[in-house]
Amino acid sequence: MKKLLIMALVLSSTNSFSFSQEFEFKNVKDKTLKVSLKLMAGRICHNLSSNKFTMYSYFGGNRDMAFYNSCAVVEYELSCLGEIASTYIVYDKKFCINPMKFKAKQVKLLHKSFTDKYACKKIFDNIVREKKNSIFKCLFDRGSEKIDEIVDFENENKKGIADEK
């Protein structure tokens, strides 16, 4: 019993659970399926003219064979819970610091697919590339563990519906 308890403690401490969100898909047979996808990557962009923050995120990572290629690209409007000030961390530009913490306010589903995770990744990469050439400065790019530490996703709508073609 003691060995089992120690093993459970070790396994639970080594697993890093990132934020996950549930999505609904309609497959080709018009059957609605609910799929839980994990936050895989996020890019926080700062609109310098309006002083607003936006995060573009890529969801995937479902290891179930039936949902392995499921993915989604989501846009979050963020509010800074710290102060917005100049910082050396992001090349002397203004960013949310003291503390670097955000609250996710609004969600917009940009794309999702039940069968093509590579299309989601390409859309995510293209959005980030487009934002680099606009009034947005995308200065913070991290994996899911770091995003979980600085973005509060509580009280968010965690569902979306899309028709798979």
How would you characterize this protein structure?
With 165 residues, this protein is α+β, with helices and mostly antiparallel strands. The protein has one domain. It contains three helices and ten strands. The strands form two sheets. Strands 1, 2, 3, 4, 7, 8, 9 and 10 form an eight-stranded mixed sheet that branches. The chain has a two-stranded antiparallel ribbon with strand order 5-6. The longest helix is centred in the C-terminal third of the chain and has 16 residues. It is elongated and about 50 Å long. 25% of the residues are buried.
Secondary-structure topology with pairs:
Blueprint: H1 2-14, E1 20-26, E2 32-47, E3 52-60, E4 71-80, E5 83-87, E6 93-97, E7 102-113, H2 117-132, E8 136-143, H3 144-150, E9 151-152, E10 161-163
Parallel strand pairs: 1-10, 7-9
Antiparallel strand pairs: 1-2, 2-3, 2-8, 3-4, 4-7, 5-6
Structural descriptors:
165 residues, alpha+beta, 3 helices, disordered N terminus
Structural class of the secondary elements?
A: alpha+beta
**Tally of helical segments:** 3
Largest sheet, in brief, is: 8 strands, mixed
Low-confidence stretches: 2-17, 155-165
Which shape, going by the Cα principal axes? elongated
Span between termini: 51 Å
**For the residues shown, what is the average pLDDT?**
76
Q: What percent of residues adopt helix (DSSP H or I)?
A: 10-25%
> Which value, in Å, is the CA radius of gyration?
18 Å
Query: Which range does the strand content fall in?
Result: over 45%
Domain module tally: 1
In total, the number of strands is: 10
Order of helices and strands: HEEEEEEEHEHEE
